[in-house]
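Per-record layout

source: Oreochromis niloticus
name: Protein tweety homolog
length: 544
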Amino acid sequence: MSSDRVDYIAPWWTYWLHNFPHINLRFQPIDKTFQPEDENYQQSLIFLGCVAAAGLGLNLLCLAIYLSCLCCCRKEEEEESKKPNSCCVTWSAVAAGLITCVAVGVGFYGNSETNDGVYQMTYSLYNANHTLGGVDSLGITLPFGLKQVSGTMSNMRSGLHQHLARLDEIFATRGDYVQTLQFMQQMADNVIKQLLGLSDWEKAKVDLASIADQSATIEYYRWLTYLLLLILDLIICLLACLGLAKQSRWLLTTMMVFGVLTLVLSWTSLGADLATAVGTSDFCISPDKYIMSKTKDVISADIVHYYLYCNQTLSNPFQQPLAIFQRSLTTMQIQIQGLLQFAVPLFPTAERDLLGIQHLLNSSEASLHQLTALLDCRGLNKDYLDAMVGVCYDGVEGVLYLCLFSILAACAFTVMLCAIPRAWRQIACREQDYDDIDEEDPFNPRARRLGSQNPDHTNMHSFCSYSSSMGSQTSLHPPAPAVSNAPMSEYMNHTALFGGNPQYENVPLIGRGSPPPSYSPTMRATCLSMTEEQRRHFGNDFQA
């Protein structure tokens, strides 16, 4: 960029992105100049998307290796080993939730910033198009019937030519008046010649309104897509946390599938955003150079330089033809005033045409002042600078935040995809433990509920039940000998069967107000190995 340019300075992040390696698909470094039509430059942007695709493949490969190791490595299912795993799953879910919330917040901010930048650019394009449209409309109202300013050069189509032709017939007998009319005609031709000497604006004419409309449409769908992606990430994270809390295997499985899909979308958006940010930064580093290279074969470089820089040292390239136009209008008005003063008394029929020419000159002078204001560089230069600030500041900054959102979302869902299979396995292990318990096990709470409904299990149910109406549940006093009619030696024999020492824990529960004792694994195994006859015998004794 030119050293004297102080109005627009590219932000630092555009220089950082501009310094990214520009490599085509043949792994050859290329020029970093913004050249969207060049095939190698397009390949350099596609290469950035391929880098994101490689990151996605590596991420999925790491997840596949982790899941394979998780499925192949069987750990011992002891109670001490389950607690650390559960804690690991919990903290993984918390970390994934926090990262997702941060990513969604960053994504909303970046999406809003990008939308604001594009909106500012489209608004500036509409203003610039309105200025150029005003120049075209003023070109239509010129008194010479000339549309040179708008590019269609129809010479002497209406207006002054018709009036001068009729006046030439009226003043045919007065040579001095005819000479005055010829002088006015020469001045009109001189103005036309000066205007025809300007650059052909028709070739350089660009419908900025259509460009702004296309940009606004694309931005709307981009904004809506990212909004839906942000909402999808948040919903998936919440449902995954709900599945962990409810220990729902089908919900966790569904969220795992959606998590993989969201992981793919995150890496895809990262590649698209990175390529967009680098390409836009290449343009923002030197926008003047690119614009002048695109218009060098269409319009004069002095005109483009005048509107892009708009310095006080630069002269208006339209100043000379506009000044000639102004002087010609002033001279023609003086001539018309003289004819109205001296020729009308002699030729009353000429008054109508002279007043018509005077009206055209007055309207042309007003149009000339408006045209001079519109052709001044300050209006279009301001629109140009506003567009650059919108794209290179807010736009690129917002895209960078969207890149950060994609990275955080990928990390969050990677952690979530690592935690969900482990949680799913723990839930499966718990259900398997419950399924392995024998339905006839007297220590199984499910067997107690079934025993209360099935009268055939009355004796076995009495083995592990007690009556809360016999006294306080917190009483630990030994039972009185008179509670049971069975001899104490028989109870001691029962104690020997369980492999323990004679304690009050081994005394039958009938008549005790305390809750049932806790049995050791050896006692439980002995009970399960007892025959049906022994169980019936012990049951009868306990009921006795």
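summary: The chain has 18 helices and no strands. The chain has one domain: 12-72+98-429.
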